[in-house]
Specification:
Chain lengths: 564, 237, 262, 358
């Protein structure tokens, strides 16, 4: 029977994934972060697989409309059961054979965790398989609810779990006054979780039920004109957003140093992302060595302002323009030889350039001037009107200003002759050249702007951290920035912000997670590209208004037909 | 039973509804031609038959068997070969290697040898140039190679997409002669042509497509005599 | 009239293959001329030599008396040569209007700093550009597609958009690479009429590559025949049709007799 | 007045950026030549040492070339950079490590050293291929028709996933590779002493590459690969199962990486989760250097890079009085890449893409 065969396949796939997760050691090392009561993030990592595969099997069968409701539930339960069974088999195998020889996490603690700390192995294994079955069944149920309820249940579960995981986020911000009582020292209290679930369920239901009424739009006009709000709404929205951004660190985040340092880091990535977005998103040039310009900006500020023996003791504000200028110059100088290359050749050469800068900064040869592996220390914080911007919430405003400026420049460039030339070049380089676009100049401008933004980000980074090391400028940063603009949506400015929060902010907030951060990151990138390759916020097309035509248009040729 | 039968076939390119309910038949031993403007759905029809463009709706039957269940590479084994639009020769393979690829699915060494001889008799030029890279052939020779390569699969049904495109008028005639010759040797042919003039001269029957639909069908003589065909596709005012 | 374009002994090789061999070619201002020949005869290669995509190994190409061989395509376009491509090559994800705006690139006098600080120049140039772009789309009958991505346009509209983009650069010489490819005789006849109209409305010189003998014979004032990279004949349509070399190498007897001359 | 017209023409044809590019290239070349001349005059190395540098570079280049083949094969057929290829290499090393340790435990290792080594090669090939097939199935196959950047991002994602999977599975520290007694000591080639593992690398890499070349050139599958590389749709119309051929290509490339992994591990006698990164980047560089998508190009690029890297610091930098020149090995490698691409933008053996531009 093909229905059961597919259930078997999916169940085993789920089991394999659960085994994989177990062997990475995630259940064990994340078991210190409570989510709800005794239930930890460690449990969540593999139990979520059972739930997800039960849900998936039910979704498949509902879509194909081949089976009755009880049959669907049975299949979902069996899917969960099979997944649980496979994980149970791992535990059994681990009892007999020394898997630790290969897998460092395959040790008794892991098996005890997986069997819910039961003294009797058999009981524990039964619990594990039962957990798989029940979760598979449970998460098949929403499919039988009306659509709004279905969505509300899922989002309530998700929100509750996320808030449980990020309980710190709640307890450190203004949210603590509203939700504080639901939370224990870490994670949610069980009753709190229940309440939170009920509340979020109610709110989500209202949202999903009302959504169709809010978004009544003529399909055709939406296609042609997009969702374009009027200029007044837009101005109002912008002002509100600005006001929010200005008060956020003090009111909402309560000047919390930790959260603000995360946000500031995200901010620096946003500036870099806005720059690389010009290079990759607008102009279509794949640059993998973008970190080089960040490093140049950072080192310029470091060497000019440091109070140490390598530094010259300048003021930050005097060094900043030079940092940007140097980064820009480097961008243009690098650009001239490499911009004649195409696509993948450009990628590897820029990657090489990034490495060259890092290696040089790290080398003994340049140590007398650049500090070698020891880096440059004692970089002072900037002062403004006599105030020293030394707290994170003060630096926040510096970074915010940087973001606003770069955003504005990027936005204005996009809607100009140069911006159109970039896009044309991205679409088809040869034809762009054939329409009169000077490729080298146009590319150089993209590279130059990208490098300047990156230099600005690096300059702020140097003063924020107070020291720079060559190690901070490795290839991973370039790749991070590239990924965040793609995850956000190529060419889209709001996408950069979303991407930076998703790829830099989230992992930063999950500190125990740091060991698995890159793993998670890799999986997220693949999943994102498979499920939503255009990014979270795809770039919207520009709609040009019809201008009033003065004077008569030329004679319309008879041969040209207006309609086909 | 017709050799090839399309019934109410719909197909999409992304959002574009390329075929809107095409139904046609090809009998064994025939030359059938599809004519119509660019974007009318001629090429799409051939792509549907080879499942390069799987239909969203409708049936494609070849010798009674439903083709929609197979991927492209299996269809070739069923006895259908295609001369793709723009020839699609492998420019960096030699002429000989191109022909070998044509016989990729076959294991009967001796029969392959025979077919090779047959192709070389049909196109002596290819024999002279068999060690040459296919990319260095002239346009006409490339078309010969594309046809020869398709014949190497020993198809019962040969699909041809615009074999005259880009050829000197002097070559067009000889290519059409070759097509007739192949047909006489026992291969059924479904021919897509821009050059309706020539196509209707050698075909037994034809279908006229417009924006994804069949608007007219009949024997070649009927179509040639049809006023609309004369005006739109044969350019007779 | 003075020649607007002149090629002297132009040769282009790829490895061992001589794609264009010692071609001499003269085009009078205001003319409509065609180059014909089978695929692989070197027609498109010759176009690419004129528009700067290829640098010929030998020979000179003069546009309005100035040597242009080996100049970069953008330079040549700025000098007043525009072209379309054999397989339509639009900027697919950009809207029809944006395609035309890009076409105007060499005629706009707006720098990046104008855009960043939004100088009066920016507003003036953008306004001028938009206005002209809309006019061009009107002229080509593309108004209804203005804000849609170019690759979503129907085939015929894409062909016309490509011409609109070429016209946006205000060319003196327009090169059309198979403008009627894939059209039925009815559409082809419309296109022929349209090309003539175009020449008169915009004071253009037009050079075409064509396969369709009807088009070539109807529209051209002069025809050049290429085969294996060499020019085998040149002359008025009637002359070409009667030229024994052309009949032998290209047209064939049947075809030569059947083509009407218009 | 002809010269004036000429001058006008050249002025229109070339602009400032051309001049800068040439000046840039020539000045680096001049510095390199100056450095080389000074080095030859001042450093105490005799011809034997120089030859030794070349031989060690040749061996290192063999590893690069083997890995580079994987990049080039996949690029040739899918036009994507398989960023995860370095990690496929790394998994091969781990696979052979565990089997090697197991063989050591049961005493097989000491009794049948040659057979053990062969087993290691086979195991590494199988493990690498398995990983490659999984990556292809999960991360690349669903994206066949996506825009070019998309599979590149999944490739980067796959690279991270594999690298950190290895870290979580096998630990973050280096693991010792079993010592191979038969590879202790050195052999004498042309009067120059070279460590046995290096000699083995040279021999094995040459053999593997010759085999691969013959496979792609003469077998039916090889021809099918080339056909698929040119045009997937038409290849399918020939009855070629395109997906299968692509998987075969991945397996072929991964097997080369597996062999390279054992050679690399035998030389460095340790295995780490991030060991694939640097050789991966280098091999990628080599593939580009030779002209990506071109099989002989990848081999040539690999050897060229290996030799240049080994020779460069001593030959060029020492003469310039640079301290610790070996740290700047990668700088030399990448600078050379830029130089080559300036003068031959599609790599040493790359096709002149410009010919098919419009």
């Amino acid at each position: 029977m093909s229905l059961w065969k597919r259930t078997l396949k999916l169940g085993l796939l789920g089991g394999l994934i659960a085994v994989y997760i177990a062997l990475t050691g995630m259940p064990l090392s994340l078991s210190r972060r409570a989510v709800i009561g005794e239930f930890t993030l460690g449990h969540l990592t593999y139990l979520i697989v059972f739930a997800a595969f039960g849900y998936l099997r039910a979704a498949q069968m509902r879509k194909e409309k081949q089976a009755s409701a009880p049959a669907i539930l049975a299949h979902a339960a069996v899917t969960g059961l099979l997944s649980g069974l496979l994980l149970a088999l791992l535990v059994l195998l681990g009892q007999r054979v020394d898997l630790g020889f290969i897998f460092i996490s395959a040790k008794p603690q892991l098996y005890r965790l997986l069997t819910f700390q039961q003294a009797n192995l058999t009981t524990g294994l039964v619990y594990l398989v039962a957990a798989g079955t029940v979760l598979g069944l449970l998460f098949a149920l929403p499919h039988f609810l009306p659509k709004t309820f279905h969505k509300a249940v899922l989002s309530a579960v998700a929100i509750t779990l996320v808030l449980g995981v990020f309980s710190e986020l709640v307890q450190r911000t203004i949210l603590k006054y509203a939700l504080g009582s639901f939370f224990a020292y870490q994670g949610l209290k069980p009753m709190g979780a229940l309440w939170l679930f009920v509340i979020t369920f109610a709110l989500s239901w209202v949202y999903f039920a009302l959504r169709p009424y809010i978004q009544v739009q003529d399909k055709r006009s939406q296609q042609v004109l997009g969702n374009q709000p009027s200029p007044e709404t837009r101005l109002l929205f912008t002002l509100a957003l600005l006001a929010f951004l200005l008060v956020m660190p003090i009111v909402i985040l309560q000047k919390d140093t930790y959260l603000l340092s995360v946000i500031n880091l995200v901010g620096l990535y946003i500036i870099m992302g806005l720059g690389l977005n010009i290079v990759v998103g607008f102009a279509g040039l794949l640059d993998l060595g973008y970190v080089a310009f960040f490093a140049i900006g950072a080192y310029t500020v470091a060497l000019l302002t440091s109070r140490g023996e390598l530094g010259r003791g300048w003021d930050f504000w005097a060094a900043l323009p030079l940092a940007i200028l140097f980064a820009l110059t480097a961008g243009v100088l690098l650009g001239i030889p490499v911009l004649r290359m195409r696509g993948d050749y450009l990628a590897i050469v820029t990657l090489g350039f990034g490495e060259i800068i890092r290696i040089l900064a790290n080398s003994d040869w340049l140590k007398p001037w650049m500090g070698g592996a020891l880096g440059v220390l004692e970089i002072p914080k900037p002062t403004l009107f006599g105030y020293t911007l030394k707290e994170e919430y003060q630096l926040y405003y510096l970074i915010l200003a940087g973001i606003l400026i770069t955003w504005l420049v990027a936005h204005r460039l996009y809607h100009s002759r140069l911006g159109r030339a970039w896009q044309a070049m991205r679409e088809d380089e040869d034809v762009a050249e054939g329409t009169g676009i000077h490729l080298v100049t146009t590319k150089l401008l993209a590279f130059g702007f990208g490098a300047a933004f990156s230099g600005l980000s690096g300059a702020i980074f140097a003063t924020k951290v107070g020291s720079v090391y060559p190690y901070s400028f490795n290839l991973l940063i370039s790749i991070n920035v590239l990924c965040l603009i793609i995850v956000g949506g190529m060419g889209s400015l709001p996408g950069v912000v979303v991407g930076a929060f998703a790829l830099v902010g989230l992992p930063e907030l999950l500190r125990e997670f740091s060991e698995y951060r890159m793993l998670f990151y890799g999986v997220a990138l693949i999943a994102m590209m498979l499920l939503r390759p255009e990014g979270f916020i795809p770039k919207k097309p520009t709609i040009y208004p019809r201008l009033l035509v003065r004077g008569a248009s030329p004679v319309r040729a008879e041969g040209s037909k207006s309609k086909q | 039973m017709a050799m090839l039968e399309l019934h109410n076939v719909h197909a999409y390119y992304g959002h574009i509804h390329a075929l809107k309910g095409i139904s046609l038949t090809v009998e064994k031993g025939e030359i059938v031609t599809l004519i119509g403007a660019n974007g009318a759905g001629k090429t799409s029809t051939l792509r549907v038959i080879t499942m390069l463009l799987p239909p969203t709706e409708g049936q494609v039957r070849f010798e009674g068997e439903d083709l929609t269940q197979y991927p492209t590479h299996v269809i070739v084994r069923k006895g259908i070969a295609m001369v793709p639009e723009g020839r699609g020769i492998f420019a960096r393979l030699t002429v000989m290697e191109n022909l070998e690829m044509g016989a990729y699915t076959r294991t009967d060494k001796k029969a392959i040898e025979e077919d090779l001889e047959r192709v070389f008799t049909l196109f002596p030029r290819l024999k002279e140039r068999r060690r040459q890279l296919a990319g260095t052939l002239s346009g006409g020779e490339q078309q010969m190679l594309a046809i020869g390569r398709a014949l190497m699969a020993r198809p019962r049904l040969l699909l041809m997409d615009e074999p005259s495109m880009g050829l000197a008028p002097i070559l067009v005639e000889s290519i059409f002669e070759t097509i007739q010759q192949i047909n006489r040797q026992g291969t059924t042919i479904l021919l897509v042509e821009q050059n309706a003039h020539m196509a209707l001269q050698i075909a037994h029957r034809g279908y006229v497509l417009r924006t994804g639909e069949i608007v007219l069908q009949g024997t070649a003589q009927e179509l040639q005599a049809n006023e609309m065909v004369q005006k739109t596709y044969l350019g007779m005012a | 009239m003075a020649p607007i374009l002149e090629a002297r002994k132009v040769t282009k090789r790829f490895g061992g293959l001589v794609a264009v061999n010692q071609i001499d070619f003269v085009l009078e201002e205001g003319a409509i001329a065609s180059i014909i020949g089978p695929n692989g005869a070197g027609k498109t290669t010759f176009f690419n030599c004129i528009t700067g995509y290829y640098v010929p190994e030998e020979g000179e190409i003069l546009f309005q008396g100035v040597e242009i061989q080996g100049l970069r395509p953008d330079r040549i376009t700025s000098m007043g040569i525009a072209r379309t491509y054999q397989n339509i090559r639009l900027f697919g994800k950009m809207s029809a209007l944006e395609n035309v705006l890009v076409g105007m690139h060499p005629r706009l006098h707006e720098h990046w700093w104008d855009a960043v600080i939004r100088t009066p120049v920016y507003y003036r140039e953008e306004r001028r550009a938009l206005q002209r772009a809309w006019e061009l789309l009107d002229y080509m009958g593309l108004t209804e597609w203005a804000n849609l991505p170019a690759n979503s346009l129907p085939y015929g509209a894409q062909r016309r958009l490509e011409i609109a983009r070429a016209l946006a650069s205000e060319p003196k010489l327009l090169l059309l690479d198979e403008p009627t490819a894939g059209m039925n005789p009815q559409e082809t006849a419309d296109m022929i009429e349209f090309i003539r109209q175009l020449r008169d409305d915009w004071n253009l010189t037009v050079l075409l590559i064509e396969h369709d003998m009807r088009v070539v014979m109807t529209i051209s004032e002069r025809i050049t025949v290429l085969d294996f990279g060499q020019k085998i004949a040149e002359g008025k349509p009637e002359e070409i049709q009667r030229n024994p070399r052309v009949i032998e190498a290209y047209l064939g007897r049947g075809a030569a007799a059947g083509i009407p001359v218009g | 007045m002809d010269w004036k017209r000429r001058f006008e023409y050249w002025r229109r044809r070339y602009d400032l950026t051309d001049v800068v590019v040439w000046a840039f290239g020539l000045s680096i070349l001049a510095v390199a030549v100056y450095g080389a001349v000074r080095s030859l005059q001042t450093t105490p190395y005799g011809w034997k040492q120089w030859l030794q540098f070349v031989l060690y570079g040749f061996s290192q280049g063999g590893v690069y070339a083997l890995i580079a083949l994987g990049y080039t094969l996949v690029y040739g057929i899918l036009f994507m950079i398989n960023f995860a290829h370095g990690e496929i290499f790394m998994f091969g090393a781990f696979g052979s490590l565990f089997v090697g340790l197991a063989l050591q435990r049961i005493g097989f290792w000491d009794r049948y050293p040659v057979l053990s080594l062969i087993i290691l090669f086979l195991v590494a090939m199988v493990v690498s291929s398995t990983v490659a097939v999984i990556v292809e199935r999960v991360a690349y196959r669903p994206l066949r028709k996506a825009p070019r950047l998309v599979p590149l991002i999944t490739a980067i994602g796959a690279s991270f996933t594999l690298q950190y999977t290895a870290r979580s599975f096998f630990g973050s520290g280096p693991r010792a590779y079993p010592e191979t007694p038969i590879l202790a000591g050195s052999v004498n080639i042309l009067g120059i002493q070279i460590g046995k593992p290096y000699a083995l690398t040279i021999v094995v890499s040459l053999l593997m590459m010759a085999g691969l070349y013959a496979y792609v050139q003469f077998t039916k599958t090889g021809k099918a690969m080339r056909a698929v590389a040119e045009n997937k749709e038409v290849a399918a119309l020939m009855g070629i199962d395109v997906d299968r051929v692509i998987v075969q290509t991945f397996i072929l490339g991964a097997s080369m990486a597996g062999v390279a992994a054992v050679l690399y591990s035998v030389i460095y006698i340790q295995v780490k989760f991030f060991m694939g990164f640097i050789p991966g980047i280098k091999a990628f560089t080599a593939a580009v250097l030779g002209g990506i998508g071109n099989i002989p190009g990848a081999m040539l690029g690999g050897y060229f890079l290996g030799i240049f890297e080994s020779l460069g610091p001593a030959l060029i930098l020492e003469g310039l009085g640079v301290t610790a020149p070996n740290q700047l090995k990668d700088v030399i490698a990448f600078t050379m890449l830029v130089m080559v691409l300036i003068f031959r933008p599609t790599g040493i053996l790359g096709e002149a893409l410009a010919e098919e531009r419009v």
